[in-house]
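Task: fold both queries, return tokens.
Query 1:
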Amino acid sequence: LSNATAVLRGLIYLLVGQQPSFISHVRKKHEHAGKQLFEDGNAWEALSKILAAMLDDPSLDGAILIVNALDECKTNRHQLLDFAKPSRVKWIVSSRNWQDIEEKLYNIKQKVRLHLELNKDSISKAVNTYFRHKVDQLAYDKKYDKEIRQAIKTHLTSNSDSTFLWVALV
């Protein structure tokens, strides 16, 4: 999702899926604004109020919201980070270590930071193990010989940049 409004829409959708009674928070705003609630220039304001109401709902207990690849959020990324700060829920945010994101996250009191680039060797080993498993599974299912199996492993290893997602998608 390339903008913060789309991230909010996605989080709202997922929360309603997990807690169907939360649709009432959406209906209140939707009855007034209609479809434009999700699409016009004021969508961020409306959706952030809806999500805030959901997160403040007493029936929400122990929620964890995950935002993956925040660095790929090109528009209003800082608004999203500001929104996440004062919250009863736990947020897991993954991102490249970009300075603007680091600065926004710096003052958050309760946080745990994992620097994956510092553990690149361990991650690379885990990805390679995953590769071997997936290639072996594919070779077994398709009855590939050793030569084709090795060609697939070589291709995946050289193109993945040590990421699980790339291999999972391919």
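Query 1 returned. Query 2:
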Amino acid sequence: MVLGIGNTLLQDEGAGVHAMRQLQSEFADYAGIEFVDGGTLSFSLAGPIGEAECLLVIDAAELGDKPGTVRVFRDAEMDRFLGANRKRSVHEAGLLDLLAVAHLTDSLPSRRALVGIQPGVLDWGETPS
């Protein structure tokens, strides 16, 4: 599963969704790849995440680097990064919460990675900077 998350109304906050949509258009013919627009996350994603064998999450992330910088966090490294950088969110669920549900139900994807993209502009607007 390729899961793009973020708010596409806040410019670079929507980087994960925009990147997922681009990958979806380029790899639409590949069988077995599910592309999911996770938007601003909700607990309704717990089921699909738990059913995925592999999970690739793309999201804007505070990396402490210049805008547009991309870092990949795999498996336990992803878990540590999310735990250390827990976002305060008004959304129903955070990614760390969804992975915790998968872990508790023994359905955590065996292979998982987070592609973090350093945002530059988080103002209102639908076009990334």
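Both queries returned. Flag for query 2: The mean pLDDT is 90.
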